[in-house]
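This entry is listed below:
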Amino acid sequence: MFEFTWIWVLALLPLPWLVKRFTRPVSLQRQSAVKVPFMDDLIAAGAAPQTESMATQSRLWWLGFLAWALLLVAAAGPRWLGEPIPQQREGREMMLAIDLSASMQERDFVFQGRRLNRLTATQLVASDFIQRREGDRIGLVLFGDQAYLQAPLTYDRGTVQTLLDEAQIGLAGQRTAIGDAIGLTVKRLRDSDNPNKVMVLLTDGTNTAGALEPLQAAKLAADEGVKIYSIGIGRDSTDDGLFGSFFQPQRAPELDEKTLTAIAEQTGGKYYRARDLSELVTIYDQLDQLEPVSRDQNYFRPQVSLYHWPLAIALLLFVVIALLKGRR
């Protein structure tokens, strides 16, 4: 969008016309001179050139007026405003910790008639959650036997989503190191000055690996002001019916809901249970409400100043006027 910064400057546009209209030209004082007898003949001979001189003066005046108008346009500060761009808002520092242990391959989630394993269901729902976290810095921790930082805190939500989608079961080992995942998250959030530090911990088992106990790690998180929302994923063993244990003899260990609840309560967060895909979607929707993104309406509009164009043309016109006067 085009606009002037000081459009009132253009009110001075008729000033040259007003000066010409309401002021008299400077008259030379009469002085004694030698009387030339054939002066009338000289005046008659110069009549045509005089007419030409008046036309030239008129052209010079209009060129000068145009130069004056361009100077006023430059002084008014013409500029082009781009589309509003939302400024980077102060959001939250949020780390997602996703379990990649062997038990996450169980297919107890159903989506559009297809059975999905727990990791695929998590990727499906968490990806949409990540895209909604505009203004937050998102990071990703994957854990199995050990915890690994897959994506540091970043505003690039697309990259975090891609890294989550590329995660594979067993990539970090077969067991579950919940305590180490919390400890690594606290380490990555410790140096941040942002008071809004959040961890979303998703697992389907109990702590079976790692050097740090989950409750000990939760105490460290509480001391550093990190709020943990824990999510227990997967169906109960009793949900498979009478013959469920017969057909799945190597079923994953039971979910340690007591520890996950204690972790969340100790850090001021909350524990959720997702037995199916709809519950998992509901949980992430609730997380959006509990940890909302800042909605301040601060926008930045890029500006391109254009004053140099009318100024350059005005200077060029002054040069033309000077040359025309020189020829006369």
Remarks:
- The longest strand covers residues 147-154.
